[in-house]
Design a protein that fits this description.
- By secondary structure, this protein is an alpha+beta fold.
- The chain has 2 domains: 199 residues, no CATH class; 79 residues, no CATH class.
- The chain has 14 helices and 7 strands.
- The chain has a 7-stranded mixed β-sheet with strand order 1-2-3-4-5-6-7, sandwiched between helices.
- Strand 3 and strand 4 form a beta hairpin.
- It is globular and about 60 Å long.
- The two termini are 25 Å apart.
C-alpha cells in the first residue's frame, strides 16, 4: 500500500474515532458466547475481593452499527470508595476488526483498565494493554502500562500508587464515580482531552508510526510527512472545499510495482488480481469503488472470496504479534471490502 493511501487511512480512522458521540447500551453477556465469559467472570470475582462491585455490561452502539463490529462488550465495576472504576473486555477479532487493530497497532485481546479522574481534569489510567499501540498522550492523561501477566490485584495496586502520587503532586482531589453515567461522562472528557492534544501535534508522531507497523524509520518518516502534508493542504484550502477534494483525490494514485506475489501463500494466489484491485486501506476510495460495482461482479466476488474467509483468518492470526507485510495487508483489506459488500 502506498504511503499516501496509508496516511489518508490513518488520518481518516483517527478522526472518525475522536469525532463520534459514542453511546453505550447495556447488554446481556449471554449474547456473547463466542467470547471468553470465563475471563469476565473470573476477573469480576478477583475485583470483588478488592472492594469493587458490578455496575453494568455495556456495548458501544456506534461499533455495533459498523461492518467491522468487534462483537464485544465491556464489563464495568467501581470501587466501594467510588474513586476508581475498572473496565475489562475480550476481543475475538474477525477480518474487519483485525483491520482496525492493525491500524492502531493493538494486539492484546484481553484487557483490564483502571481509571480515576481528578477535579482539575487530569485522568489516571492503568492498563495491561499494548503500550506501543497508544497514540501520543496528553500531559493531562497519565497512563501506566503493565505486562499482561500482571494480576488484577497487582494492576490495582499500581493504579493506587500512581493516583496517590499524582494527587499529591498536582494538589487536586479525585472525583467520585457512583453510577455508570458518571463513568461514561468521564470517558467523554478523556476523549475530548486527547482529541484536542492530537489535533495540536498533527495527530501522530514518527515514533508512533514506527512502533505500529511502518516497518522502518524511513517509511515512518514518509508516512508522517504525508499526513502533515494532508493537514497543510486542508488548512490552505479550508475556504475552498472543492479544491481540497481534488487535491486529496489526486493522492490516491498508486503504483503497485512494489507488490511481491510470493508474499501471498500459494493457496491464496488466485486472489491476487482481486487483492490488487480491492485491497484498499482508505475507506472513502474503497466505498467509492464498491458503489460502482455491478451486481454480477459483486456476486461473483462474494462467491469467490467469502468461502476463503477461514483461510484468510488463519493467515492473519500469524501476524497478531508481529509486523504484517504490505501484501498481506492488502489481502486483509480486500476481505474487508468483500465483507462490506455482503453487509
Amino acid at each position: 500500500m502506498g504511503n499516501k493511501s496509508v496516511a489518508l487511512q490513518i488520518l481518516d480512522n483517527l478522526r472518525n474515532s475522536y469525532n463520534q458521540a459514542y453511546i453505550y447500551n447495556e447488554v446481556n453477556s449471554d449474547s456473547f458466547k463466542h467470547l471468553s465469559l470465563k475471563f469476565y467472570n473470573e476477573t469480576q470475582k478477583c475485583l470483588e475481593q478488592l472492594g469493587f462491585y458490578y455496575l453494568a455490561d455495556i456495548e458501544n452502539e456506534y461499533l455495533t452499527k459498523q461492518s467491522m463490529n468487534p462483537r464485544t462488550f465491556i464489563r464495568v465495576m467501581v470501587h466501594q470508595d467510588h474513586l476508581t472504576n475498572v473496565g475489562f473486555y475480550h476481543i475475538k477479532p474477525n477480518i474487519l476488526w483485525r483491520c482496525f487493530m492493525l491500524l492502531i497497532g493493538f494486539r492484546k485481546t484481553k484487557v483490564i483498565e483502571f481509571q480515576s479522574e481528578l477535579e482539575n481534569g487530569s485522568q489516571i489510567v492503568t492498563s495491561n494493554g499494548d503500550k506501543d499501540s497508544i497514540l501520543p498522550t496528553s500531559p493531562d492523561l497519565i497512563r501506566n502500562f503493565e505486562s499482561a501477566k500482571y494480576s488484577s490485584d497487582d494492576l490495582y495496586q499500581k493504579h493506587q500508587t500512581c493516583l496517590s502520587n499524582t494527587q499529591k503532586r498536582i494538589g487536586s482531589k479525585p472525583l467520585k464515580f457512583k453510577t455508570i453515567n458518571d463513568i461514561l461522562e468521564s470517558e467523554k472528557r478523556q476523549m475530548l482531552l486527547q482529541k484536542e492534544y492530537l489535533q495540536g501535534i498533527g495527530w501522530v508522531t514518527k515514533e508512533y508510526l514506527l512502533k505500529n507497523g511502518a516497518g522502518s524509520e524511513k517509511r515512518a518518516r514518509e508516512i508522517y510527512e504525508e499526513i502533515q502534508e494532508i493537514l497543510r493542504k486542508e488548512r490552505h484550502f479550508s475556504n475552498d472545499p472543492k479544491k481540497l477534494d481534488v487535491s486529496v483525490q489526486n493522492d490516491y494514485n498508486e503504483d503497485l510495482s512494489w507488490f511481491d506475489d510470493s508474499k501471498i501463500p500459494g493457496h491464496l494466489r488466485d486472489l491476487i488480481p482481486d487483492i490488487k484491485k480491492w485491497g484498499i486501506g482508505d475507506d472513502v476510495k474503497r466505498q467509492q469503488l464498491v458503489s460502482q460495482i455491478s451486481d454480477i461482479e459483486r456476486k461473483e466476488l462474494i462467491r469467490k472470496v467469502k468461502p476463503r474467509f477461514d483461510e484468510i483468518n488463519k493467515l492473519l492470526d500469524q501476524y497478531l504479534d508481529k509486523p504484517m507485510p504490505d501484501e498481506i495487508g492488502r489481502l486483509m483489506f480486500m476481505a474487508e471490502a468483500v465483507s462490506e459488500m455482503i453487509v
